[in-house]
Amino acid sequence: MRPLVWFALAFLLVGSGCGPRFSASKGVDEVIPPGTRVAVMPFENLSGRENASEKITDYFIQALHRVKALEMVEIGQTYEQMRRLRIRSSTFLTSEQIDSLANSLQVAYIFAGAVLEYTETDNTYLGKIPQISVNIRVVKCATGKTVWAGVSNARGDQSELLFGLGAVRSREELARLVLDKAVDEIAGLVRE
Q1: Which of 35, 79, 184, 185 sits at a 20 to 30 Å CA gap from 68?
Q2: Parallel, antiparallel, or unpaired for β 37-40 and 145-155?
Q3: Burial of 3 (0-12, 13-18, 19+ CB in 10 A)
Q4: Nearest alpha-carbon partner for 109 in 137, 67, 69
Q5: Which of 137, 190, 127, 125 is nearest to 162 (CA)?
C-alpha cells in the first residue's frame, strides 16, 4: 500500500507544475528601469467572442498592477488619446502613431496584444473546457521596436492530474492564470 501512496504523491508533485504556459522571447536585451511610465492599449479581439478583449485587457491591467516599479497610465486616458489621435488598432501601429501616443501620454513603453481565442470546448469526461489564446508585446516608444513578445495557447485541461483534479473550469480563471504568467515574464525586464 505504501508504494502506491508514494507513487501518487510523486505524481501529484511532478504534475503540479503543469498548467497554462506562456512562451516569450526578447527582441533585444531590454531593461526597463523602475519608475518607468507605461501604457496598456486595449487588446484586439480576433476571437469572435463578444467582450473577450475587454475582459482580457482588464485582467492584464489587474495583473500588471502587481509590478509596483512601473507607473501605469489609466486605461481611460489611453482610450481618450487613441480616439483623439484616431488610432483604431493596437496590432498595426505605425511609428508615427507610436510617437504620437508616446508624446501625448508621456510613456516610454506601450503594451499591446490580441485575443485570438476565448472559447469553451466539450470534453466527454470533464464537460466544458476553456481555451484561451493571447499574444502580448512590449513596444519601446523611443525606437518603435518590439522588445518583448509572448504568446499563450492554453486549455483548462492542461493542468489536469487525474480524473479532472487540477483542471481549470472557467475562462476567467484560465485567463487570469495565463496573464499572471505573462506579467511575471514582463516583470523580469524591470530592474536597475
Answers
A1: 79
A2: unpaired
A3: exposed
A4: 137
A5: 125
- Judge whether 158 and 20 are in contact, CB under 8 Å: yes
Sheet strands (E) in 35-169: 37-40, 44-45, 71-72, 109-123, 127-140, 145-155
Those residues whose C-beta lies under 8 Å from the C-beta of residue 111, and which sit 6 or more positions away, are 38, 39, 40, 41, 60, 64, 136, 137, 138, 139, 186
* Single-letter residue type at 165: L
Alpha carbons 136 and 91: distance in angstroms, whole number: 10
Q: Which CATH number fits domain 20-26+33-187: 3.40.50.10610, 3.40.50.300, 3.40.50.12640, 1.10.1760.20?
A: 3.40.50.10610
Distances (CA, A) of 148 to 18, 23, 49, 128: 24, 11, 26, 33
Give which of 115, 116, 128 is closest to 156, Cα–Cα.
128
Measured at the CA of 66, the angle between CA 184 and CA 47, to 5 degrees, comes to 65
One-letter amino acid at 173 equals: E
Query: Residues near 89 by Cβ (< 8 Å), separated by ≥ 6?
Result: 44
What is the per-residue pLDDT across 78-123, written as a single tens digit (0 to 9) for each?
999 999 999 988 888 889 999 999 999 999 999 999 999 887 666 6
**Model confidence, pTM:** 0.80
